Amino acid sequence: MTYGVAVLIAVLTGLAAAGGTALMLRVLARRRILDHPNERSSHERATPRGAGIAVTGALLAAWVVIAALAPAARSTVVWIVPGALLLAVVSWRDDLKSLPALPRLVAQLVAVAAGLATFGDDGLIFQGLLPLWADRLMAAVAWLWFVNLFNFMDGIDGLAGTETVAIGLGVALLALLVGGSPALVALALAAAGAALGFLPWNWHPARIFLGDVGSVPLGFVLGWLLLSAAAAGQWAAALILPLYYLADATLTLLRRLLRGERVWRAHREHFYQRAVQGGRSHGEVVALVASADAVLIALAFGASQWPWPMLAAAVVAVGLLLAVLARPKALPAR
């Protein structure tokens, strides 16, 4: 597979996701599968939920095509695609009628366990600092957390799609920089393409939402891409690219834990949600996050040569972003 073919597949994936989302918008609206506003919502009107069926479907179909064209990707796709499909089915059931936490966690454990099978004994996520069994255990915990935080962070229009584009492009460009295989570039670009096809429908004011059927499988797929970068020695870049999501979700969780709150309950305390409550529009918040993501992509490139300085710079950049999001927007002077 050539890099040109990888780009073509990404473009076709985006078109498929866009067309599929348009179709799902009509189907979901007709069947009244809607996300109704409540005290924890950031939207103001009932909106169809379930575009993830189209987005996940387009992405996984693209990965199957990539596997057919690039034998190097087949051992990955044979594990990741079924795992993502399992998560999509369980998550769609949860979208329609809330499931208890246990079946959702079991599905995630099965998918993650299968996904870890794609890494050979020499594909150590933690760079050989841990024995193989501990490396896999810690990778599983990190992957599970990423899947769930990606779902938690899907709370305002355009945010999840923008983050998917940033991580997909970041992994693809990083692979190009370090001489990664065209197959890995194609897998990452397909994720970015699927999100780009969805974004016009989800930009504020959103006409349709991903739903868990989209955010959970996307978190799973992106988690695999980041773990693959870490296993290839680019551990700092794998931390830098999703650092805003990691910081916002983790700090919010810790803050709620310290207050003794039931952390599994829905809330509006993430930094991006506080920014909306503080007077910023969805578009303004997403633009701030996208700008920070562009900086993180650049720092991820530098991390191939200077991992610790670039990671430190990324922490500072994300810290500044969180400080801006937490501060109410200044009202114009009268």
Defining traits:
334 residues; mainly alpha
Cα-atom Rg, whole angstroms?
19 Å
Strand arrangement within the widest β-sheet reads 1-2
Number of helices: 13
Q: How many β-strand runs?
A: 2
Shape: globular
Q: Report, as a whole number of angstroms, the end-to-end distance.
A: 60 Å
Task: Give a quick summary of the entry.
With 334 residues, the protein is mainly alpha-helical. Helices cover 71% and strands 1% of the residues.
Task: Report on the architecture of this protein.
- With 334 residues, this protein is mainly alpha-helical.
- The chain has a domain at 3-235.
- The protein is built from 13 helices and 2 strands, in the order αββαααααααααααα.
- It has helices at 3-30, 52-69, 74-96, 101-116, 132-152, 159-177, 182-202, 212-231, 235-240, 243-258, 271-277, 282-302, 307-326; strands at residues 34-35, 47-48.
- Helix 3 (74-96) runs antiparallel to helix 4 (101-116) and helix 4 packs across helix 5 (132-152).
Topology:
Blueprint lengths: L2 H28 L3 E2 L11 E2 L3 H18 L4 H23 L4 H16 L15 H21 L6 H19 L4 H21 L9 H20 L3 H6 L2 H16 L12 H7 L4 H21 L4 H20 L8
Antiparallel strand pairs: 1-2
